[in-house]
Design brief:
Elements (H helix, E strand, L loop, with lengths): L1 H19 L20 H16 L9 H4 L1 H4 L9
Amino acid sequence: MSRIRQIVGLLVTITAIIACQNGSKTTTLPDEFISPKTGTKKELTLDSIYLYAKQLYRWQESLPSYTTFDPRTKYAQIDPEQM
């Protein structure tokens, strides 16, 4: 019985390791514009939210480029809450 548990445990571990591997890493093209280096705190926050999603989203190739999406223009009307 102990031998069967070891084999099942080994198979589960190997399956988990293989399933969690990310086979393809997408990289930015050298000429791709990532985001501006300057801006207000709100603009830099919008850039960071977009870039964070771009890095972690599993289907990131379906996300538009920064210049196409342009979070600074798209969400310029948002007013952060003041405390």
